[in-house]
Amino acid sequence: MALDFTEHFIKHLKNADRIMFFTGAGISAESGIPTFRGKDGIWNKLKPEELANFEAFMRNPDMVWEWYQYRRKIVNDAKPNKGHLAIAEMENLFSEVTVVTQNVDNLHNRAGSSKVYELHGNIERNYCVDCKTFYSDKDWDYNKAPHCVNCGGLIRPDVVWFGEFLPEDQFMGGEKAASLCDICFVVGTSAVVYPAAYIPLTAKQSGALIVEVNIEHTELSRQADYTFLGQSGDVLPEIVKKLKELKKNDF
Ligand code: OAD
What CATH number labels 35-77+124-159? Predict the structure, then answer.
């Protein structure tokens, strides 16, 4: 895929020190992990209020646990794709690269990105709803909601459910990166879920160039300086390739 880079875009790429990526389910689509919205989206077939909700979990913990076990298996079997790997590689090309993700699949960490803020938690972690002891999912390979070895409380996945607060340190870290970055890449997200979707708006208000990568236009497209339409696994490696060419020509 050959992208049409304008001189203006190239100038920004060359001059940027700090960049950030705000990512959503679309970046993991090419790893075989379903997105939430759109034609084959999870929320088209299943009801979030029955699965991604604390009351639903307390009402029917085994059903919710089983659904998360099913998703964990998909995530566990998946591998980071060319998009995740391109983002990790950007660390060789800029002084600071921050990833702020809405995804719970851990694929940015597995791809090698070193600074990742997880706004919606991480499906590989669990914690006790009563005493907050944390557990890794490796300890729980059965289909019923387990109980805490310390206090007997129910153990839930460490993901943000509807109506819950985002982890404050992760959100604040993301907001700070947004306010300091030169370029904010918004990749594979419909950008409709708040407060997460405030992050690229903070970047915009702070003067960053907003570059969207998506297979289609979104709510954010009007705010973006550039929208590259295509799969992130195709577009992001092209940007890395361009950056390497620019770097070579500098010497
Ligand atoms: P969505 O499912 O809402 O949006 C996925 C986006 O990815 C869409 O805009 C697609 O067009 C785009 N897309 C799909 N495949 C792509 C590809 N290969 N390359 C680039 N773009 C692609 O997912 P999110 O925006 O992540 O929240 O959803 C936000 C939040 O809503 C999720 O974190 C989750 C969900 O409810 C919680 O679980 C709290």
Answer: 3.30.1600.10
Calpha distance 224→237 (Å, rounded): 20
Let me know: does 152 contact 129? Beta carbons within 8 Å.
Answer: no
Could you identify the atom of ligand 1 that is nearest to the CA of residue 102?
33
In this prediction the pTM is 0.96
Whole-number Å distance between alpha carbons of 36 and 25: 7
Q: What stretch(es) of the chain map to CATH 3.40.50.1220?
A: 1-33+80-120+166-251
When the candidates are 3.40.50.150, 3.40.50.12780, 3.40.50.720, 3.40.50.1220, the CATH number that belongs to 1-33+80-120+166-251 is 3.40.50.1220
Q: From 67, 68, 193, 216, give the residue whose CB has the most ligand 1 atoms within 8 Å, as the site to mutate.
A: 193
147 is catalytic: no
* pLDDT surpassing 60 at residue 251: no
Atom of ligand 1 nearest to the CA of 120: 39
Is the distance from the beta carbon of residue 52 to the nearest atom of ligand 1 less than 6 Å?
yes
* Kind plus residue range of the DSSP H or E element containing 45: helix 42-45
Q: Is the CB of 230 under 6 A from ligand 1?
A: no
| Cα–ligand 1 centroid distance for 36 (angstroms) | 6
Q: How confident is the model at residue 19 (pLDDT cuts 50, 70, 90)?
A: very high
188 CA to centre of ligand 1 in angstroms: 6
Measured in whole angstroms, how far is the alpha carbon of residue 96 from the centre of its chain? 18
Beta bridge partners of 157: 126
